[in-house]
Amino acid sequence: MEQTLDRSPPPEWAAANVSVIGSAPDDATLMLRYRNGDVRAFEMLYERHKGALYRYLLRLCRDPDAANDVFQEVWGKVIASRDRYEARARFVTFLFHVAHNCAMDHFRRSRKVDVLDEQLPGPAHEGPDAALSETQLRADFKRALAELPVEQRDAFLLYEETGLGLEEIGRVTGVAMETAKSRLRYALRKLRGALRQHEPSTMQSSVP
Length: 208
What we know:
Blueprint lengths: L26 H9 L3 H23 L2 H17 L10 H20 L17 H20 L2 H13 L3 H8 L3 H18 L14
Helix pairs in contact: 1-2, 2-3, 2-4, 2-6, 3-4, 4-7, 5-8, 6-8, 7-8
């Protein structure tokens, strides 16, 4: 049975981390139920993860149309793989592994590896000086992101936007945990270095 997805994209500000309300079934249970024909289980999974997935793809693809296309492709692959699904890892790891692969295919097709401009918080104080500083900060951050190798940008986005740990990022991207950790460390080091002139520091993340 084919699923009909709500094609209106979730808001960009949707929370990146998965939230489970009350005693709702966990992801693996829902996916196994869907594998056995429970369409409502799939709908629950979709509602639970669409925000985080769309935000990741939008920031990675830098183009709403491309993000929407990849978003639909990801869920299509989840639907197509339901008969083969096994709960060997968290569903969110499986989902973002599919998303990563679809995004990389998109980049190969379009030869485009830029990352969406980071949506940084607004300035603490309104005024010409604050606005000028914010504009420069955004420009510096955009340039620093653009200069990162795509593997480091992807690791950074997965860590910051999806709540995945290093081991899971390794699974998503098909590398060892230490490789994922190294990519993330290099990304954060370069971003911090590029933004060192701005105070307070905008890069407060730390890698375990």
